[in-house]
Amino acid sequence: MNMINTNLPTAELQKLDAAHHFHPFTDNSALGKKGARVMVRGEGVWLTDSEGHRILDAMAGLWCVNIGYGRKELAQVAARQMEELPYYNTFFQTTHVPAIALAAKLAELAPGDLNHVFFAASGSEANDTNIRLVRRYWQAKGKPWRRTILARWNGYHGSTLGGGSLGGMKGIHAHGGKIDGIEHIEQPDWWSEGGDMSPEEFGLARARQLEEKILEVGPDNVAAFIGEAVQGAGGVIIPPSTYWPEIQRICQKYGVLLILDEVITGFGRTGNWFAAQTFNIKPDIITIAKGLSSGYQPIGGSILSDEVAAVVGGDEFNHGYTYSGHPVAAAVALENLRIMQDEGIVEHVRDVANPYLAKRWAELADHPLVGEAKLVGLMGSIALTPNKATRAAFTSETGTVGFRCRERCFANDLIMRHVGDRMIISPPLCITPAEIDVLIERARKSLDECYAGLQ
Ligand code: PLP
Asked: Residue whose CA is closest, atom 13 of ligand 1?
């Protein structure tokens, strides 16, 4: 029998929610005044809320529902796996078929010699694993002092204490502090911080901060550098073309391990299976989650190079989670990858992103509020500005214009997210040209309404 009465009116559900459900990244005290929107169903790129509104989800949930909502095959696989073997662990020399098959599949899909998968239940857990992995790597190599990890301000790597410390979100550090041995450099955000430099000059300058930081900390103290190929939660910051080659060169020069956080960019988002391929990066470790199961089950992990796996695997690795390689999550992820391959979803991203979405997205740059409109694959952002020529930011008296715009989108049944005054999208990868038209039409209407409200 159903434990909750799903036929309760929306206001009743919202009241219960505000009373008992403590939400992540939410002002919980405000929920009593304005209840949370209650989602009840999903199909493709569409969500339906408890009031019957059909909402275009241009964020794929939290950047994760890559194959779209409502795929029954995944539900069927989950049910079958639950009946057969709902749980077993992968500790102490045991394993099971879903974990074996998924690890082998990931080794096949991941570029280069990234052939070994350590499973977690989320991206945050996987990045916590990475902290231990890279420190253990240098211990095993006889250099336990090599333990500092370098990362970027405004990067996001999760919200556990480890993931939040790797991330460069000051608001997260402010809630509970951060762990030691992690240092940050500036981000490659040309629009906001590039000044008079060209994007290419700025990309090089920001990458060279990594070298400066390595020299400041001492090359023999640095274990690894971690970065998202494209910063997601930071506002879909697509780095200038000069950035990643220079980061790669510096990591190689000082023997610093490179961890590429592909929690958002993995599994087709940028038009390849991994952004490492899109940006020609050769990481030692890749972090994965989200699109791995299209969000249908909580699963993440770290894919290690042959060398990292050989060094860390030379002895017992004292680390693991009850749900590392959970059989139901692994079986669902495997089915998700099968569908992606059989239906050519990564190829679809390339077809639909360029030129169709790229062209329609670029059109938004003619709106009076929009400075730049940028896109890679199916993730994009627009920067809102009061002055396109100077790339100025709105002053605080105007409030966060991005928030106002996001509220207009929500009212117009379009989910876009705002990061400061950037509006971002990351729709399900199955989105069609006709749905892209709806997305652009609703985004423009919301921008118009937001603009009118500022006059
Ligand atoms: N890394 C990146 C790049 C992310 O965007 C996220 C989540 O948004 C995480 C890590 C954390 O993943 P999770 O929320 O599954 O812990």
From this structure: 123
Ligand 1 pocket member 157 (CB < 6 A): yes
Tell me which residue has tokens 């709806």: 438
**Helix %, strand %, coil % of the chain (to 5):** 45, 15, 40
* Per-residue pLDDT at 180 exceeds 90: yes
Which amino acid is residue 154, in one-letter code? N
Confidence grade of residue 2 (pLDDT, cut at 50, 70, 90): low
**Is the CB of 228 within 6 Å of ligand 1?**
yes
DSSP string, 243-268: HHHHHHHHHHHHT-EEEEE-TTTTTT
The closest of 155, 47, 72 to 332, measured between CA atoms, is: 72
Q: Which two tokens stand for residue 293?
A: 């199961």
Q: What is the pLDDT of residues 222-261, one digit of tens each?
A: 999 999 999 999 999 999 999 999 999 999 999 999 999 9
Region 20-24: what's the mean pLDDT? 97
Residue 423 CA to ligand 1 centre (angstroms): 19
The pLDDT tens digits of the residues spanning 439-448 come to 999 999 999 9
pLDDT at 303 over 80: yes
Index of the ligand 1 atom closest to the CA of residue 127: 10
Round to whole Å and give the CA distance between 218 and 419: 34
How far is the centre of ligand 1, averaged over its atoms, from the C-alpha of 288 (Å)? 9
Q: What is the DSSP string of 399-411?
A: --HHHHHHHHHHH
In the structure encoding, which two tokens stand for residue 250, read together? 């510096």
Question: Which residue's entry shows tokens 């892209």?
Answer: 436
